[in-house]
Amino acid sequence: MSHTLDASFLRTQITGILVAAGSAPAEADQVAANLVLANLSGHDSHGVGMLPRYVDAIAEGGLTPNASVKINLDIGTMMALDGQRGFGQIVGVQAIELGIARAKQHGSCIFTLSSAHHLGRIGHFAEMATAQGLVALHFVNVLSRPVVAPWGGGDGRFGTNPCCIGVPLAGAEPFLLDFATSRVAQGKMRVAHNKGEQVPDGYLIDEHGAPTNDPGVVVVPQSNGLFGALMTFGEHKGYGMAIACELLGGALTGGGTWHRPADTARSVFNGMLTVLIDPAKLGTQTSFEQEAREFVAWLRQSPPGAGFDAVQIAGEPERRARIERERDGIWLDDATWGEIVAAGAKVGVTVSA
Length: 353
Ligand code: NAD
Prior knowledge:
- This protein has 353 residues and is an alpha+beta fold.
- It has helices spanning 7-21, 25-40, 51-60, 88-106, 123-130, 186-195, 235-252, 279-282, 285-300, 316-328, 334-346; strands at residues 2-5, 70-74, 78-82, 108-117, 135-143, 162-169, 172-180, 204-205, 211-212, 229-230, 269-277, 330-333.
- The chain is built from eleven helices and twelve strands.
- Nicotinamide-adenine-dinucleotide (NAD) is lined by residues 43, 45-46, 118-123, 142, 160, 162, 164, 176-180, 184-185, 188, 270, 312-315, 317-318.
């Protein structure tokens, strides 16, 4: 059984649960809108399916509702920010708004954000920056469970460490590259497991370090009480990128790196290094706009390869999904919807579709 739900219905339900869990109405609205936008964008792994985990994280004391970002250092071109364990959808937006203002003023801003609870889709922040004409680079680590194996290793040692690059394109939608450095996002394995699906070769190893197609190995503890692990994308190169995200998003930000056995806490913390650049201040704006436009046009002239309709640039699949899902509704599997209903019940909210 599954549920196809209207985006506005989902936003209202999620907002109600978050308010009951302790968020002020404005915070609940913003978090709910961010989660639903992830579903609309085609990334169900970072959508409303995260809500049950957030409700548990609040109850455990790991996630602090109504927290704001704290500025530890601000010299204009550099900021050190502390997310104070607040909702990433709130403190992340506060951080990027501060960074955008400073990059507009000084031409660039590099900031670190530590101790944010789950930041969701990192592309959300790059979309905010590119909408202001800025280039945005984000390197993020994940402190929750070591779910990704190092290249050549046999168990999970770090998180799905996302990386995101946003580049504004004059007169067109931006280039918005936003991906987990694992072969797939952990949340996509939860979705596949809930749907009872197997995944392709090369995604996973089991709790003994052997290749497997069962997404359950990273969702539920296995026979020996251990989990399997995701592989990184791009073999040793994606592995290197994942480590860069851990060193920059975890060590450099002060948020910390993962170097301990798995725990059972439901909270997920992200550390993020962000670099914002204003091409207008760099003095290359005119050639940047022209060269970028001509390069993208050149790319699009490539004839479609086997199985493809056309060459796309990053960001397009998400924008297309938004149009389709706003129109057709958001599809949720029964297990995901059941978990949301149960999360509502935990805080005294009755949800029905
Ligand atoms: P993915 O594998 O779907 O890749 C998405 C990227 O590839 C996007 O930039 C998309 O536009 C681009 N893309 C997809 N198809 C394309 C095509 N045919 N041509 C050109 N570009 C194409 O994404 P993912 O790795 O599963 O990550 C999903 C989301 O999860 C991201 O938003 C990421 O930020 C988020 N994430 C967050 C955390 C966290 O802890 N907060 C951790 C991991 C991932």
